Predict the structure.
Amino acid sequence: MGFDIGLAAVILLTAVLAHRRHRQLNLAAVAVTTLLVVDAWFDVMTTPRGEAGGLLVALATACFVELPLAVLSLWIALTAGDLTGTGRPHSPGSEDRAHQDSLSDESDRTG
């Protein structure tokens, strides 16, 4: 029960960050992805093996709810820079290019 409340809280946080187009959206979305995969694994692994119906429900929930939502959340994490207008958050050399662009803009204005 506590894990599900924590998962719901992180999903809500991710939704708020997406609505605000916050630059930390990708981190929250990665947390949601991780928690959903762990929840699916935990539900399937802790279902008593004597309950065929229970295992079937756990597998169906994992395959048709939790894992697809994890894939969606991963997609949000990977495209968060596009969604927030900040570009790809961890693209190699992005800080260097931005710095070079700002330097060339300054030299254009002073030159």
Summary: DSSP finds four helices and no strands in the chain.
